[in-house]
Amino acid sequence: MGSADNKAAGAANNTKQGFVYLPLIAGWLVPGAGHFLLRKWGRGALLAISIIALYALGLAMDGKLYSGAQDILDLLGLVGDLGNGLMYFVGRMLSLGGDPVQFTTADYGTKFIEFAGLLNVIAAIDAHNLRTGRKAS
Amino acid sequence: MIKPSHFTSLLLVAIFASTVFGITMRDTPKRMLRYGFYCFVLFVGSAILLSWVMYFIAR
Q1: Dihedral sign from CA coordinates of A45, A46, A52, A53
Q2: Which portions of chain A are predicted below pLDDT 50?
Q3: A60 in B contact zone (CB under 8 Å)
Q4: Residues 29..58 of B with a Cβ closer than 8 Å to A: which?
Q5: Rounded CA separation A55/A76 (Å)
């Protein structure tokens, strides 16, 4: 009993060491990576699949990747896109995405990409909360 | 380029968003599953309900 408690305490101490914002930053850059760092493999995989699939579907629907902001709505779109982390920057480097939006489905695709970014931010914050102990498990 | 229908797009968003919401908003796997399913039903149910409301408003 005592040794089991010690092992649990040791494991908890191990997870508390290191840079506290690492799961947050890793989770933002790569979907699910924050949870992978915390050894939450199943959750990380499901988050990664969901967010990457939403982003990829958005691009496949010819959704737009915002490159700048001309007005407040563009700015909100850009903020949503930036939530995708590395996927956004890779997409911009490869000139992925349609521009301008010409079809209804392309407009849906644009929203898919923005939504994927916002979900990725939620997932990264969840990883941070797990890391700091604000969320139990 | 793929062109899913409006309803298919809704289903895709609902599935992926419900997965993320379920995982991030609850603590235990059982509660995650229940909350994810709850979100999915709300996404799809509210869209169908509002669609019928708009259908009758347009008449």
Answers
A1: positive
A2: 1-4, 6-14
A3: yes
A4: none
A5: 17
